[in-house]
């Protein structure tokens, strides 16, 4: 059986975390807006992450907005010494499922200060630019992040939904330690970015790790999941852990049961043939 991969990764040379983390977007209301339908369950989920040994939580000021960060602090503060909380700034919210990029330094300063306050932190370990705003010169956005880092408000800086050229541009201002792009076993559009980050020792944090609308891929994943005794979602997550050692997982859920199911991904085992089939899945599906 093929199960060989490192279970930890070091972000920025000094933050050693477990590669199975938790994404805290879903502990909000419908449309990632307002409070969760079951607030007590959301708190239980967060507390369960600690019990399961998860030490990397990804959130953003725009989740709610503010709600996710507030719940994290309520459930987990004072934080465990090894817990890394990554948050993001760069989106404005006007309603459910409404997202507007804003990379203006004034906006970023305001939301960064808000994140620090809500999370009860003096410094964010990993602060990620949620989107590069086409309406604001990237140099201005990057210069602000560099300044905030120099002021000690940010430890490390990451980016989200960026090209290789955009990463290289940002690297002229600061060390980029993480990139969060849409990527999955059945959606490899950002393959070049994954390869570049692996070469650079940059963490790659995929979001939407299973493109559920891809019916052909789901059928093939279902066959493999039945053979290995796992769910389709677990197979998709496990493939990501095998795909590259710099991939960090942040599957999100508002349910303790689903959280525990996600953690069971670490028990999934593939044969070499099954892993090869998954490696070729995206190419195979597109060619049909």
UniProtKB/TrEMBL annotation:
One of its GO terms (cellular component) is cytoplasm. Keywords: Oxidoreductase. Residues 19-281 form the NADP-dependent oxidoreductase domain. CDD domains: AKR_AKR13B1. InterPro entries: AKR (IPR020471), Aldo-Keto_reductase (IPR050791), NAD(P)_OxRdtase_dom_sf (IPR036812), NADP_OxRdtase_dom (IPR023210). The keyword ATP-binding does not apply. One of its GO terms (molecular function) is oxidoreductase activity. NCBIfam families: PRK10376.1. This is Predicted oxidoreductase. It comes from Pedobacter westerhofensis. The lineage of its organism: Bacteria, Pseudomonadati, Bacteroidota, Sphingobacteriia, Sphingobacteriales.
